[in-house]
Specification:
This protein is of the alpha+beta class. It has helices spanning 10-20, 51-60, 71-75, 78-84, 94-101, 103-112, 126-135, 159-170, 239-259, 292-296, 304-312, 390-403; strands at residues 2-7, 27-32, 42-43, 65-68, 88-90, 120-123, 140-144, 153-156, 182-186, 191-199, 204-206, 211-212, 215-217, 221-224, 229-232, 266-275, 278-285, 327-334, 359-363, 366-369, 372-375, 379-387. The chain folds into four domains: 2-91, Rossmann fold (3-Layer(aba) Sandwich), CATH 3.40.50; 119-186, ATP-grasp fold, A domain (Dna Ligase, domain 1, 2-Layer Sandwich), CATH 3.30.1490.20; 191-318, 2-Layer Sandwich (D-amino Acid Aminotransferase, Chain A, domain 1); 328-410, Glycinamide Ribonucleotide Synthetase, Chain A, domain 4, CATH 3.90.600. 29% of the residues lie in helices and 27% in strands. It has a five-stranded parallel β-sheet with strand order 3-2-1-4-5, with helices on both faces. A five-stranded antiparallel β-sheet has the order 12-15-18-22-19. Helix 7 runs antiparallel to helix 8 (159-170). The structure holds adenosine monophosphate and glycine.
Length: 418
């Protein structure tokens, strides 16, 4: 089988590595891929958002199955276009990807189907948003409606911060059209949990839970990032909570999307807050999280490609989806300056990181030139260790990080210390 993977980060590297383990796979292409992915796939310089060229590439390369991993191509309808050309895909159609692409859509869905979430109001008028914020008790949460590369959310501690966030979205258009409509939400408190789930619209199977570490610096300080590290499973997500989430959130969401004529097939990402009034949805994403995928998929025992094909063919209930006992700890090595501006092009020394049992080094922002690897992004590597328990996974992950080096390398030292 020839497989096409759209995307080029750590998430796509772990997907490519697992797909490569399937004995029926003969060739993998990645658009655009990265340095690490090029070890197992042919990487072609077509951007993940260039749907026309992705479609022509797929048509001329005899692709049997495509995995559309990032949010942008999903929101742009990559799956619809490829499927229309007869290419089977893992990932939701455009009309289902809206669950991530529009936060207003997601909130209205939850309101209509009684899925627990934070209280909210929607605004398209700056003055109305400002007066609502002025009358609200802080903290409050300001969110751009559309995709904003993970930067569209501000937890405002006071009115001044709320005002800045509203002006930046609606007046300065920091996120373009994505911020023309905003949400102002009640601020929830509690432990955050990510649950990724495979669903084909009829069956929904949660993967091992995880905990992202979104802030840039130790002690959950500094600006939000795409994610600086992950542990899986999430120690706060008990079997009782899992059962409650299945009943009140996961199944109702799948059914709600069906009812709306937006059957969701792919990986549905539930960002949850475990509040003292039960678990509530903070956000949905229409794809694997990054770096959550780099911690969760290494714990998967069943064949990833078989499961993804079953999702596409709507026979998920027929395949095993099993996870190992034990834990993952994934530490992101970032470029100095990330998430603001940073320099790239530094050579990466991996030492003997992957010589440590259970360790895999996934490439996020790297490129390969003349047999050497160089930094090419803000998040450079996701170093994951799988071990019997969280503590030993953590020890191994940091031992591996000690082996790795590049100019300006920065990472959090407290992933998984809770
Ligand atoms: P998102 O981009 O939707 O993942 O939001 C980024 C982060 O903002 C989340 O991981 C939460 O930590 C925080 N957040 C979003 N919405 C809320 C909320 N209603 N209450 C508290 N924190 C929130
Ligand atoms: N790590 C958060 C996300 O993928 O959205």
């Amino acid at each position: 089988m020839n497989i096409l993977i759209i995307g080029g980060g750590g998430r796509e590297h772990v997907i490519a590595k697992r797909v490569a383990q399937n004995p029926n796979v003969s060739k993998i292409y990645a658009l655009p891929g990265n340095g690490g992915i090029s070890q197992i796939a042919e990487c072609v310089k077509i951007s993940a958002e260039d749907i026309d060229n992705i479609t022509s590439f797929a048509k001329t390369h005899d692709i049997d199955f495509a995995v559309v991993a990032p949010d942008d191509p999903l929101a742009l309808g990559a799956v619809d276009r490829l499927e229309a050309e007869g290419i089977k895909c893992f990932g939701p159609s455009k009309n289902a990807a809206v669950i991530e692409g529009s936060k207003v859509f997601a909130k209205e869905l939850m309101a209509k189907y009684n899925i627990p979430t934070a209280k909210y109001e929607v605004f398209t008028d700056i003055d109305k948003a400002l007066s609502y914020a002025a009358l609200s008790d802080c903290p409050i949460v300001i969110k751009a409606d559309g995709l904003a590369k993970g930067k569209g959310v501000t937890v405002a501690e006071n009115f001044q911060q709320a005002r800045e966030a509203i002006m930046s979205c609606m007046k300065d258009k920091a996120f373009g059209h994505s911020g023309e409509r905003i949400l102002i939400e009640e601020c929830l408190t509690g432990k955050e949990v990510t649950v990724l789930a495979f669903t084909d619209g009829d069956t929904i199977i949660p993967m091992v839970s995880s905990m992202d570490h979104k802030r840039a610096y130790d002690g959950n300080k500094g600006p939000n990032t795409g994610g600086m590290g992950v542990i899986a499973p999430n120690p706060y997500y008990t079997p009782e909570i899992a059962e409650q989430c299945m009943r009140t959130i996961f199944l109702p969401t799948m059914k709600a999307m069906n009812n709306e004529g937006r059957k969701f097939k792919g990986c549905l990402y539930f960002g949850l807050m475990l509040t003292d009034k039960g678990s509530k949805v903070i956000e949905y994403n229409c794809r694997f999280g990054d770096p959550e995928a780099e911690a969760v998929l290494p714990l998967m025992e069943s064949d990833l490609l078989d499961v993804m094909m079953a999702v596409r063919d709507e026979r998920l209930s027929d395949v095993p989806v099993r996870f190992k006992e034990g834990a993952s700890c994934c530490v992101v090595c970032a470029s100095s300056g990330y998430p603001a501006s940073y320099l790239t092009g530094y050579e990466i020394d991996f030492g003997n990181a992957e010589g440590i049992e259970g360790v895999e080094v996934f490439h996020a922002g790297t490129k390969k030139e003349d047999g050497k690897y160089y930094t090419s992004g803000g998040r450079v590597l996701a170093v994951n260790a799988v071990s019997g328990d969280l503590e030993s996974a953590r020890e191994k992950a940091y031992k591996a990080v000690d082996q790795v080096n590049f100019e300006g390398m920065r990472y959090r030292t407290d992933i998984g210390t809770l």
